[in-house]
Amino acid sequence: MVSFKALLKQQVLLPIIQAETAEQGVAIANAMQQAGIHLVEVVLRTEASIAALQAIKAAYPQMVVGAGTVTNADTLNAAIAAGADFIVTPAITPNLLSQLRDCPVPVVPGVSNAADVLLAVEQGFTELKLFPATLSGGAAFIKAMGAVFPQVNFCPTGGINDSNKDDFLRLSNCIAVGGSWIAPSNWVEEQRWQQITAACKVANTPALCH
């Protein structure tokens, strides 16, 4: 199976889409695509999220569209049935990991401490999401984990923004940073699509060193 890192290609931003309607999801995805974004995560936090995921995939067949906020077998199965290209979870349990092991697409389980990392590694997962990143040790935590778990790569989300993203991206075991700061709800409500495009361009600029 292809890895999440391979799906990212050169993209260092994992932009999060939270849509109240399918049409809104497509509009957000369009604004992100205008910035050169080819991979997005649709969080399953609204009643329209599955429909938004499907609509984005239909409108932009070349876009890699993942599903986030997967917390149980029901949401996992719904995401896979909708055609999600990858799965992201906010946290892990032994039961959830057992469900994720048989997933037909790449999975990025969420961790928040060293015990979580070890649990995920024991189950064969080496691409992990640190969440909430800034409240769970931030870049210093990811750097420390590199010495103990050199095979693990991280995609931190939660509290990431333009002012601190490079602190993470300079780390060799950080493959991308995720967040919704590039498409906050007020911008979406006010249809400030060009602002979302501009924010994605800035956020997807790689750190000077890695």
From TrEMBL:
GO terms for molecular function: (R,S)-4-hydroxy-2-oxoglutarate aldolase activity; 2-dehydro-3-deoxy-phosphogluconate aldolase activity. The keyword Oxidoreductase does not apply. Coiled coil: none annotated. InterPro entries: Aldlse_KDPG_KHG (IPR000887), Aldolase_TIM (IPR013785), KDPG/KHG_AS_2 (IPR031338). The keyword Nucleus does not apply. Its EC number is 4.1.2.14, 4.1.3.16. Keywords: Carbohydrate metabolism, Lyase. PROSITE patterns: ALDOLASE_KDPG_KHG_2. Pathway: Carbohydrate acid metabolism. Homotrimer. Belongs to the KHG/KDPG aldolase family. This is Bifunctional 4-hydroxy-2-oxoglutarate aldolase/2-dehydro-3-deoxy-phosphogluconate aldolase. The lineage of its organism: Bacteria, Pseudomonadati, Pseudomonadota, Gammaproteobacteria, Alteromonadales.
